[in-house]
Specification:
heterodimer; A: mainly beta; 7-stranded mixed β-sheet; 4-stranded antiparallel β-sheet; 11 strands; B: mainly beta; 6-stranded mixed β-sheet; 12 strands
């Protein structure tokens, strides 16, 4: 169990630029989640994959956000035309299916700063 | 829609004393309830969960939580606090009946254990 890995750890970008984050879940986990956390708040759900299928998507996820999980392994989260309001910590988590599927393992996150 | 309230931004306790971190929830169906802990510069870590069964749930690091359906509460407790327990604690809920995977987190409670 090497844990959930997220890259990069930090990303600074200018408003209007596109950014992409990567998440590598724990290898045997078939469920993958993206959350967003701002200072002083708890994580907010963005989207959920079971294998390669994106099964849930929050209304927080505007058209500028897109997530993929090709082949049901790693996932990417892309933000197009970034805005200052996108500045946040983007968290990825994974879990097993079945009776243990309620225990999420989180990565350390990608801190996005939009200037 | 589900929601979680953590009424205390910070809880202060002396080492060796019992601690309680409060959480109340709102869901339309049966709740799945969780506590996660966040240490500085580290990802969220699972502490414990209530799905069904005994109202008193035991978790990692000596923590436990009591599910109270009538009061819609799920308070986190530990009989004897350690300085190393100082961290940010998040309560979360999932509506089991809704069929969605998203967790709704509270805003977090900072626990400060003094020597």
């Amino acid at each position: 169990d090497t844990g959930v890995s997220q890259n990069p750890r930090h990303k600074i970008t200018k408003r209007g630029q596109n950014v992409t984050f990567r998440c590598d879940p724990i290898s045997e986990h078939n469920r993958l989640y993206w959350y967003r956390q701002t200072l002083g708040q708890g994580p907010e759900f963005l989207t959920y994959f079971q294998n390669e299928a994106q099964l849930e998507k929050s209304r927080l996820l505007s058209d500028r956000f897109s997530a993929e999980r090709p082949k049901g392994s790693f996932s990417t989260l892309e933000i197009q035309r970034t805005e200052q309001g996108d500045s946040a910590m983007y968290l990825c988590a994974s879990s097993l299916g079945g009776s243990d599927n309620e225990k999420l393992f989180f990565g350390s996150g990608t801190q996005l700063s939009v200037l | 829609a589900q929601s979680v309230a953590q009424p205390e931004d910070q809880v202060n306790v002396a080492e060796g004393n019992p601690l309680t971190v409060k959480c109340t929830y709102s869901v339309s169906g049966n709740p799945y309830l969780f506590w996660y802990v966040q240490y500085p510069n580290r990802g969220l870590q699972f502490l414990l969960k209530y799905i069904t069964g005994d109202n008193l749930v035991k978790g990692s690091y000596g923590f436990e939580a009591e599910f109270n359906k009538s009061q819609t509460s799920f308070h986190l407790k530990k009989p004897s606090a350690l300085v190393s327990d100082s961290a940010l604690y998040f309560c979360a809920v999932r509506d089991a009946a809704a069929g969605f995977q998203k967790l709704v987190f509270g805003t977090g409670t900072r626990l400060l254990v003094s020597p």
